[in-house]
Amino acid sequence: MLFTNFIFLFVFFPLCVGGYLVLWGIQKKTGKVNLRIGDIFLIFASLGFYGWARLEGILYLCIYILLAYAMGKMIEKKDSSVDKSKIAVGVSVLVLAGILYFYKYIDFTLQSLNDILQTDFTLFYVLVPLGISFITFSAISYVVDIYRGNSTAGSLLDVALYISFFPKVVSGPIVLWKDFQPQIQHRTVNDVRFTYGLNRIMIGYAKKVLLADSFGAMVSDIQQSLVGGMDVPTAWWCALLYMLQIYYDFAGYSDIALGLGELFGFRFKENFHFPYISASITEFWRRWHISLGTWFREYIYIPLGGNRKGKIRTLVNLFIVFLVTGIWHGAGWNYILWGALNGMCMLIERCIRDKKFYVRIPYVVKWGVTMFIVLISWQIFRIASLSDGADSLKIMFGITGFSSVNFTFAYYFTPKMITLAVFGILGATAFHKKCFYNIYSKVNESRILFVIQEVALFGIMILAVMFIINSTYSPFIYFQY
Predict the structure, then answer these.
(1) Distance of CA 6 to the CA centre of its chain
(2) Which residue pairs, CB below 8 angstroms and at least 24 apart, start in 399-403?
(3) How many alpha carbons fall within 13 Å on the CB side of residue 416?
(4) What integer pLDDT is reported at residue 77 of this predicted model?
(5) Cα distances (Å, whole numbers) of residue 318 to 12, 136, 333, 343
(6) Which residues contact 90 (CB under 8 A, 6 or more apart)?
(7) For residue 431, which of 238, 199, 203, 256 has the smallest C-alpha distance?
């Protein structure tokens, strides 16, 4: 079920939040905390949310929950023997990673072998369960955190809530078990958190519907008209709009997910922190999809040795992480190339970051170079076929030209889109300034200003709903991962 679906907005969301608050209030008033009727309700609601796209998805999710729980209990029972625990956690991770590989990569692997070796392996054409990458990473976090002693296995109810929790089940953010478990028993819902959650949700819808979907519709139009030729300005305009689209699409989703978590008493870590102000690819990845970066650091980079085994090993570990990052995003050579490109940039920056010439380079130059690399890498990420991606870059740099173009840049540079792009650029860069945080603090200290803020946000939400009604383009990009 999409967050932009009318069923979600006007049926599931009010019934789920209202039902949970009623049950939570009853539980709190009666003092029967161990009944956890609110959590049971939330689990069934989450299963319904997940199964909305395909009913059999509920079965997949339940199997994952039972499998992760059984593995966690097995690892916890073997904690008296280090060797047995290592074997147990190793087998658990291999099983979970194997399931992910089969569903997402088996056909890609077989097809690649067919192309390279001229063989004729039969493809499986399996239907990939929704959000399997995020679900698998949650399950791996669960078993590894238990093995490390960061958390206990918890009850089956705890695991079911952790893995199925609907705000994060499909597209994250990836919440670690060691961060989720303490909040299960020690969380509360109050008017401050509830208001903050609603505000975050409304801001998320504004990012997704008003900005990301508008950019996405234009990118789609430009791409569809490619058969009629494309001029250089249009190619760069398309690349810029996609750069804004993917940010506001996923950041908007994350805002909605974090806001929903607040409504149920869960506080998750930020997933984006103005990545487009970064002056290096290293900084960019500290600010972009933070939960994914945290997961890779915790469960791949550190186990590989991190930066504790010398410079060469550190560089190798970094490159491995980014290669896996590319592979995680999808079964395609474009994702692998995208991950390798980011990994190579990270290695170069790690080698020169302390050099005098690099330190002296002005911030604006570093920022410009970084954003150029990010923009180009998003083109590789966006277009599945490497040949099509290369053709797109050739058009951008004027290597490929067209004798005639049906729609020139003047057709796509509309006042509406230029205005939205300006707002998008400012929102992704300038709003990180401290002065905006100070304004926000002052607004919340004043009752009148606070009311004005809430009315404005509600108005923006109504506008977003109107856009949803009139729009034919509203998919979340990260739903496919």
Answers:
(1) 22
(2) 402/229, 402/230, 402/231, 403/229
(3) 8
(4) 80
(5) 42, 22, 19, 7
(6) none
(7) 203
Is the Cα dihedral 271, 275, 277, 283 positive or negative?
A: positive
Cα distance between residue 233 and residue 215, in whole Å: 16
Q: How many CA atoms lie within 13 A of 351 on its CB side?
A: 12
Number of C-beta neighbours around residue 205 at 10 A: 26
User: Do 133 and 481 form a contact (C-beta atoms < 8 A)?
Assistant: yes
Q: What are the φ/ψ torsions at residue 362 (nearest 5 degrees)?
A: -60, 150
Contact status, residue 135 vs residue 295, Cβ threshold 8 Å: no
Better-predicted residue by pLDDT, 189 or 250: 250
Q: How many angstroms separate the Cα of 261 from the Cα of each of 62, 154, 163, 173, 189?
A: 21, 20, 14, 11, 10
Residues assigned a catalytic role? 329
**Cβ of 387: how many Cβ atoms within 10 Å?**
8
Terminal alpha carbon distance of the chain = 15
Decide: helix, strand or coil at residue 174. Answer: coil
d(CA 166, CA 211): 24
CB 260 within 8 A of CB 167: yes
Give residue limits of the domains in the chain: 6-186, 193-280+353-480
Q: Which of 101, 91, 1 is nearest to 51 (CA)?
A: 1
Cβ-proximal residues to 215 (8 Å cutoff; 6+ apart), any chain:
241, 242, 244, 245, 248, 420, 421, 424
Q: What percent of the chain has pLDDT over 70?
A: 96
The CA R_g of the chain, rounded to the nearest whole Å, is: 24
Tens of pLDDT, residue by residue over 240-261, are 999 999 999 999 999 999 999 9
| Calpha distance 160→287 (Å, rounded) | 30
- Residue 480's CB is within 10 A of a number of other CB atoms, namely 13
Measured CA to CA, the distance from residue 73 to residue 153 in angstroms comes to 6
Structure tokens given for 157: 């109810």
Q: Note the pLDDT tens digit of each residue in 414-462.
A: 999 999 999 999 999 988 877 777 887 888 888 898 899 999 999 999 9
Q: Report the alpha-carbon distance of residue 323 to residue 191 in Å, rounded.
A: 44
DSSP strands (E only) in 286-427: none
For the beta carbon of residue 171, count every other beta carbon within 10 angstroms. 24
pTM of the model: 0.94
